[in-house]
Amino acid sequence: MKKVFLMAGIASLLLFTSCGEQSQSNGSGYTIETTINGIPDGVRAFLRVPNDKGQPVPKDTAIVQGGKFIFTGKTEFPQMGFVYVNGAPGNYTLILENSDIKVEAYKDSLPKAKVSGGKHNKEYVNFIEDSKILSGKMQKARERYAVLVKAKDTASVAMVRKQLSDLEKEAIGYQEQYVIEHPDSYISVLLVNRMLQNKLTTAPKAKVFYDGLPSDMKKTKVAEDLFIKITELLRAAVGSVATNFTAPNPEGKNISLNDIKGKVTVIDFWAAWCRPCRIENPNVVNIYNKYHADGLEIIGVSLDGRPNQKNAKEDWIRAIEQDGLPWHQVSNLAGFRDGIARTYNIRSIPATFILDETGTIVAKNLRGAQLEAKIVELLGK
Fold first, then answer.
1. Which of 13, 72, 74, 204 makes the best surface tag, with the fewest CB within 10 Å?
2. Under the phi-then-psi rule, with left for phi > 0, alpha for psi from -120 to 50, and beta for the rest, what region is 191?
3. Cα–Cα distance measured from residue 175 to residue 198, given in angstroms and rounded to the nearest whole number
4. CATH of domain 246-379
5. Angstrom distance (rounded) from CA 25 to CA 81
6. CATH number for the domain whose boundaries are 20-116
7. Is 196 left (phi over 0), alpha (psi -120 to 50) or beta?
């Protein structure tokens, strides 16, 4: 079903961020003072932050004394922080920012610790509070959906799926409005990142948001990640000039996109093992035969080369012959690891890009009658 669990996803994402405050450093650094019940003195606590791969790595340690422990330091920019305590299950999360941070925690419910202080943590707390009603509705609908699926109640499943879809739209609207009202917020960066990842916003919209961020916020890891995603998506976005690529054809001869472009060009990502691709191929063959003489060119980029393929090249060549594909074919036989696939941000196939005579991407992922209609339009027929 559709990605209807966005609000829950955002909540879990932001829980990689919880709440924080400021220190006796008067803004020059942070102090995280945690009061914890149920943990004896002498027990060690750990502060961890994400590394470049997003995995929590050690940053600092503290020892419980008098029911409290304290971390102090300075951070160049806001980032997520994770606090663990020996003997306590789980962890609590916060936004590590140069501020005084106060935490109230209990041994048996560490993830539910109350964190206060700091601009970004305050915004997070307000975001969660304001979205609780909607989150509750989504949680109940998800639980009901699971029960109905198990009971194979098809009619009711369809009804609840519609409810979840409506709730998702409401959640997206709430988040979009939040981003508009908080353009310099760390929480907004997280939200845009997640929406872009789930294809709930576009790269051009995300770029407008990113461009409006303060310079210090652009230094955060999540903003850097957002910039990379935007850049990757814009390379293959409608309105962008298609990036040239070169790869070998079945005979081993290198062919470049720029060398074969016509009045209309289709880049077709497919594979021998991709059943939907193979089903669509006869339609594409028909379109090619009808319009090739008018200036239509197609270049197929095979993503054969999955680890479980014993002989990817043989599979590729056999599929070309079986489906009677008369256009240019190239492949590095590297599956989804292929550099061309990464350049065009290919996550699933079939995937198609339709280029006009200037090489600009004018449409994506059209099939059947829609693909033919677009080609006819571009050819001016």
1. 74
2. alpha
3. 13
4. 3.40.30.10
5. 19
6. 2.60.40
7. alpha
Same fold, 20-116 and 246-379: no
**pLDDT tens for the chain, residues 1 to 381:** 444 344 444 444 444 333 333 333 445 899 999 999 999 999 999 999 988 777 899 999 999 999 999 999 999 888 889 999 999 999 999 999 999 999 999 999 999 999 999 999 898 888 888 888 888 999 999 999 999 999 988 989 999 999 999 998 898 889 989 999 998 889 999 999 989 888 888 888 899 999 999 888 898 888 999 999 898 888 888 989 999 999 999 999 999 999 999 999 999 999 999 999 999 999 999 999 999 999 999 999 999 999 889 999 999 999 999 999 999 999 999 999 999 999 998 989 999 999 999 999 999 999 999 999 999 999 987
Reported as half-sphere exposure (CB side, CA atoms, 13 A), residue 94 has a value of 36
Torsion of CA 124, 128, 130, 135, to 10 degrees: 150
Give every CB contact of residue 102 below 8 A, 6+ residues apart in sequence: 21, 33, 35, 115, 116, 117
Query: In the sheet that 328-330 helps form, which strands lie side by side, from edge to edge?
Result: 328-330, 296-302, 264-270, 351-355, 361-364
- Rounded distance between C-alpha atoms, residue 269 and residue 330, angstroms: 10
> Would you list the domain boundaries of the chain?
20-116, 129-235, 246-379
- If one counts every other C-beta atom within 10 angstroms of the C-beta of residue 68, the result is 16
Residue type at 22 in one-letter notation: Q
